[in-house]
Design goal:
TIM Barrel, globular
């Protein structure tokens, strides 16, 4: 029988209480038992702490980026990623200056946040050389900011698939020389679901091109089962964009566990392949910035509680 989180906490408190009683009645001989009882809580939390959990800025894009940073800090995150726009923030785009990037990192650090992933926005309606120039500028900016991954969402028009593969191949090589990994997430088009993403990996043909899985987008864009798709892609997955989804084409700004994603099944498949993060919360519920922060915190604790059961 699987215990609820409340039952686990209650049983831990009971054990600690028994240990204290035993210590009073048995004297120094009971100290070993007391120490064992007190060690239960850290041991119980170990399975959750092995998983790296962070948050994208996307839930707070109705406000300023500084409000997003404050929200992520208040929600208990220490890792962050860039996915979404805020007025006046070029992030790692070609328009960013060295001075802006240095200040951006300082703002993150001041909130106790470490950036690990940026958003790679590529153009596939341009000549190959122009597209590569724009992509490489973003990689250089990501290097200055200190991120480890740059995330692409693929491209939708089939006529641009070949161009995308060529840009990714060259960009993956350029990024590898700067210790940054290029990653693609499920997002329709050439990255619709596992079959399309496996084709991307084959066509790009570079070990520095990998996958950040997104179970909510599998449901939003495709008819496939996220757990099945996770298993098919698991050996290539180096991160997860965590979101739930109400159904095909449905709302993704949800509390985890209220939509169609079976998070436990998805992460069990990924864990079986050796994956333990990073996992970044991408979406949550909430109308006001305060509600969004509360929603992000709730989604973080949802993941932590689930990871304890894996």
């Amino acid at each position: 029988m699987r215990l609820t989180r409340r039952q686990v906490l209650k049983s831990g408190a009971t054990a600690a209480g028994l240990a204290m009683t035993a210590g009073l009645s048995l004297g120094n001989e009971s100290l070993g038992f007391v120490a064992q009882a007190q060690a239960v809580e850290p041991e119980k939390n170990e399975s959750a702490s092995r998983w790296q959990i962070g948050c994208f800025n996307r839930p707070w894009t109705t406000g300023s980026y500084d409000e997003a940073l404050a929200g992520m800090q208040a929600a208990g995150f220490r890792l962050t990623g860039l996915l979404g726009d805020h007025k006046g923030e070029p992030f790692t785009s070609p328009e960013a200056t060295p001075e802006y990037l240095d200040r951006l990192k300082e703002r993150m650090t001041a909130r106790g946040l470490t950036p690990i992933v940026g958003w790679l926005r590529t153009r596939h309606d341009l000549a190959l050389t122009e597209s590569l120039t724009l992509a490489k500028q973003q990689i250089e900016h990501a290097q200055r900011l200190g991120v480890k991954y740059m995330l692409t969402v693929g491209v939708d028009p089939p006529a641009q698939f070949g161009h995308f593969y060529r840009v990714m191949a060259d960009t993956a090589q350029f990024a590898s020389e700067r210790k940054i990994q290029i990653v693609v997430k499920p997002h329709g088009g050439c990255s619709l679901a596992a079959s399309e993403i496996l084709r991307c990996i084959e066509r790009v043909g570079h070990d520095n091109f990998r996958v950040w899985f997104d179970p909510g987008n599998i449901i939003h864009y495709s008819p496939e089962d996220p757990a099945v798709e996770a298993a098919r892609l698991a050996r290539y997955v180096t991160g997860v964009c965590a979101k739930d989804c109400a159904g095909r084409g449905g709302n993704v700004m949800l509390p985890f566990g209220t939509g169609k994603v079976n998070f436990a099944e998805v992460f069990a498949r990924l864990k079986a392949a050796g994956f333990s993060g990073p996992v970044l919360v991408e979406c949550c519920g909430g109308e006001t910035l305060e509600q969004v922060t509360a929603g992000a915190r709730a989604n973080r604790t949802f993941l932590e509680d689930m990871f304890r059961t894996l």
